[in-house]
Design brief:
Layout lengths: L2 H17 E4 L2 E4 L7 H7 L3 H11 L1 E2 L10 H7 L1 E2 L1 H13 L5 E8 L5 E9 L2 E6 L2 E4 L5 H8 L3 E7 L5 E6 L7 H7 L5
Parallel strand pairs: 3-4
Antiparallel strand pairs: 1-2, 5-6, 5-9, 6-7, 7-8, 9-10
Helix pairs in contact: 4-5
Length: 188
């Protein structure tokens, strides 16, 4: 490539980066310039792309008191906490045909919960936890939750508006059999 072509390439890259960023050769436009969730979803190729984009462009920030942001609000603010990333993940990946659920996990012995977006990817379940893509070795939802969160006490399937759709309590006498039977077919 000659000097003129190199300069043009550099100018183009600077212009692209001022509007968004490059990731694995793909151009991601800054949401401030692409006003809709759909335009962002169109740019994503996979859940891994979403996780990489979250880590590059978004900040994890807990709000007190806890407030569930809409997908659009998280996209605009470029910050949020676990449920905000779960909601935005469900919206963006759902538009790519990846169906899953927002799940709130309450842990044993502590007054703390964590929200994830869980979905089936091929034979196994994966989830977005905060900004990270976690791939499990489990073909069942119950196994995926048990693998990553063995100290769970209560699982709540929730809507983006913080409405409980289904609640599963841990049966301490028989491990997670109740979880297995209650939610094995719940991924929509």
């Amino acid at each position: 490539m000659n000097n003129k072509a190199l300069k043009i390439t550099k100018v183009i890259k600077i212009a692209i980066l001022s509007l968004g960023f490059l990731l694995n050769g793909l151009i991601f436009i800054n949401p401030a310039f692409s006003q809709t969730i759909q335009s962002v979803a169109n740019q994503l190729k996979s859940a891994q792309d979403l996780s990489l984009w979250f880590n590059k462009e978004f900040r994890y920030e807990t709000e007190m008191p806890d407030r569930w942001q809409s997908a659009e609000e998280t996209l605009r603010l470029k910050k949020g906490d676990c449920e905000d990333f779960a909601i935005l993940s469900k919206e963006l990946l759902g538009r790519k045909g990846i169906k899953g659920d927002i799940v709130v996990i309450k842990f044993q012995g502590v007054n703390q919960s964590h929200a994830i977006f869980i979905f089936k990817e091929g034979k196994y379940f994966s989830f977005i936890s905060n900004k990270q893509l976690i791939q499990t070795n489990s073909p069942t939802l119950a196994g995926a939750i048990q693998e990553q969160f063995p100290d769970w006490e209560k699982i709540t399937f929730a809507t983006a508006k913080k409405e409980a759709v289904k609640v599963v309590l841990r049966n301490n006498h028989s491990g997670n059999t109740q979880l297995e039977s209650d939610v094995a077919s719940d991924i929509r």
